[in-house]
Write a structure and sequence with these properties.
alpha+beta; Deoxyribonuclease I, Chain A; 6-stranded mixed beta sheet; 8 helices; 19 strands; globular
Length: 351
Amino acid sequence: MRVATFNLYQFLEPPFHWYERKDSGKNTYSESQWTAKTAWITTQLAAMNADVVGFQEVFSIGALQQLTAAAGYPHFATVDVPGRDDNDDEVFFNPVVAIASRYEFADVAELTVDDELRAFLPVEDGFDFSRRPLCATVETPEFGEVTVYVAHLKSKRPQMDDITYPDEMPWRDRVLDTMRKLSRGHVGSLLQRGAEAAVVYLRISETLEANEKAPVVVLGDLNDKSDSVVLQSITMSQRIHEVGGVKKADWPPGVAGQFYRFRLADAFHMAPDETGEERPGTHMWDKKWSTLDYVLVSDVFSPRSPNSIGQVTEFEVLNEHVDNDGVGNKTQSDHGQVVVELSKLVPDGPS
């Protein structure tokens, strides 16, 4: 079974505009640009050859469903719709996530935030996802029902309104005020992204609580580094030294191993590493690579797990288009695609 995550970069068919209408045409596609973009996506899907693909930055849901159906994915789902400007019905905001699959869905549901969880998190009363994740139960021939989450967490862009100052305001004051607002905006963005991660983990943990042998896969643009607090809030891979005030040295036998049942692993660290090369980046900013896009898997895809049913046998990032092919992001994407192959665990034969 091959799974992938694919940030499409503003998938919005013409003549519509994302976020705001600009005279330069920067936030929309011409017909030729749209034709080039959809052709590239189709080619990229063929190169990925994934059975299940999670998408981010989807505005034109119907167009993506038609494209993926033509590419060999008869099953498609979303759980939300993008927003639309009240003053200009050709301007859209808040793109959604989507999933396309070669295999049937047994169920598709949205992830929600209940009042009890809002009260616990350090967020405002009206907190909700910036982009609502989905959870699909996929009927696979290799592993039976696989629970697939598709997410796109809040970006690192500061959470703040546009700033304008009167002409008579001294530049020193403008600079100081901007820096203060940016400081608060960065923290606000981190709180939003972190809270979203905590809700995603809560829903995943509920799946695993009901059945710790359930195969779970997360496909997403998680917008943070692999060792960040945000990622650790989803994987829960950090070491835990105390449970209910009882330190590790005093735990009963077998307790330490139970943590893995409710953790997720970054597929990159589970895949065979024959070359020892650095992790390939999925996004470039200021000529520096970073990883924002991930495939995470539950413990059943670890060969060392007592509940193991499979393993990660291939990890690949398709990122040549991001920096090296001379074509702009607009008709392709500013993210690389992460593709992971999950194979059934083959029992050791007699020695």
